[in-house]
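User: PilZ domain-containing protein. Structure?
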Amino acid sequence: MSLSERSYEEKRGFIRMRVDTMVTFTKVDGKERYEGRCRNLSGAGMLLETEKKLESGDRLRVTIPSEGPDFSPLDAVVEVVRVTPLPNLHFFRLGVVIKKICN
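Assistant: Predicted structure:
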């Protein structure tokens, strides 16, 4: 399927894959570890959910564990570009852009 044949939602350079996996992350300038869930992933970014309140512009080191011995965990530096509070769930939904793959 070419870019011109995709639906409106998928007119982007990288198709989003729905995932539901745990992630760990730290702020690039910090040491405290946090947890969350990755809800979707593309070659350019991720959608994360976490209890930790973050701000647009925060840089994080995110690790997504591997599901098997044949694959390395994904270790990346990302930048938060969107924060959406989910008050009923006491979570935040974070749109992040991948800046660097570290492994």
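The beta strands are 17-27, 34-41, 45-50, 59-64, 74-86, 91-101. The two ends are 30 Å apart (CA to CA).
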